[in-house]
């Protein structure tokens, strides 16, 4: 399905596809007429509260532990500017453009509900910044995942004020004011409550969750391809993947993974060569035989994560919030626990999928377990080391993924003079999940590369059509072909890009049809 070139915000929750289109593919954004109507209605409530003598949190008071101070009308514009400036306190490496675009889109989606009390012109500026590819520079550290992703969102709000730094459509760093002027946009002068409305949401962690789940959908299908090639290359059986056996334990992810393995191994000359009565193999090792159980459990985990993400996409996260009956109420919906938990859950599953992939790879390299292949798949063992150290690379990554699987969401450091005394650390969960996905991509790439070399060493036996298509793709990029030792790092990186881009998955699916 082609990615949309423009996304309308305000007709319902942002979908996974829309978020990816804006965050990753650069689609533009515009607000629906219904969103503008809702925004105007919410703003009218805030304006009424701002004019009232009774203090209202976020409208005419300070914030957090300073909420007890009533701010006079003449100082409220300064109040909003001060809020954004002080909260734009991020530090560390620059966050990826797709993450920043994703969090801006999700903040705009909440603004479009009318529940935040933002002005239409402020919401429209966010849409215009996305359309003109003006990306605020956000730093790695600063969010505790409670009161939302305050620091990352504040850096975006700061840019909308014409302050701070951004990257333009060409990726050039420049002052925000210059980028806005070049695009014909005017900085916003924040009114009552607007600064708070722009920074109080789970948008950063949620955007990263959606992007991660999009990547994991592709990677889990690729993991099935890698597993099938490993089963095939190690002379394993496909009978254990039969649907009737999977039905005895009716987990949906397991059934889908097993069905993929069956399809991927269909018409394999390698599998057929040892299917007869002379085969003395009783059972394959767990890493081969149990691939659908592990991959399936991960799939079901990610499905649960997607359910939580869908609920969060349908949410309006702000504090205080403007209700339809005209009330403005404080709440705790900004707490990131629901998102933080599943971000950590996903990292656990990703680590285990990488772990079983590494075990399948290692079996290829051990002469005692690889059923007639040369040690380390080397051309001249002893002179050549083959893929010995490629497995070391896998092992190092898997070890890192196990550390990243330790949940961030179990930690909490009180902040804001103990007013914010329990936080989710969901942003940290999101950041480590991104690293986990990169690691899983690399581990699967090494397995695919290794299995491709092994299957070529099984000649004249013919691999399955799906495996043959993947091998042809890899060979066209000088990946996975047998022969004397060569500089391996560039070959691994090419394999990683073929997995990351989806080329490996496309090669298989173009041959046998869509995988589940």
Automatic annotation (TrEMBL):
Keywords: Histidine metabolism, Lyase
Organism classification: Bacteria, Bacillati, Actinomycetota, Actinomycetes, Propionibacteriales
Pathway: Amino-acid degradation; L-histidine degradation into L-glutamate; N-formimidoyl-L-glutamate from L-histidine: step 1/3
Top EC class for this record: lyase
Biological-process GO terms, alphabetical: L-histidine catabolic process to glutamate and formamide; L-histidine catabolic process to glutamate and formate
The UniProt record lists the keyword Zinc: no
Originating gene: hutH
Native source species: Nocardioides baekrokdamisoli
Protein name: Histidine ammonia-lyase
PANTHER family per record: HISTIDINE AMMONIA-LYASE
